[in-house]
Give the backbone structure.
Amino acid sequence: MKLPDCFASLFQNYDFDIIDDERHRSLVIKTVLAQGTWEQILWLFRHYGREKVREVFVEDYYGLQTLPESTRKLWELLFIDEPLPDDPHPLAKWRCRRLVPPAAR
């Protein structure tokens, strides 16, 4: 299904006409959580449901952490029971978040 036209401004780096709400669910959810208006966020929860939105957020939260820190802090209030502790090291925000597969080493 095609996204509503009011979402086009959020996806200026993509060909908006080919974004599919199910195939590109993770991209849509993370983009709207990070940059969406209140009306777009309400649409997101109505369309996908709280559990699917939570699933995508939790995967990012404990995974690569592609969402901006301010966005993670906001949505962890709703979706995370025990937040990750803040790393006091000043270079922690620059740490590598991607795991290199053992075969590639």
User: Anything to note?
Assistant: The chain has one domain: 5-83. The radius of gyration is 16 Å. The longest helix spans residues 50-62. Residues 5-83 form one domain.
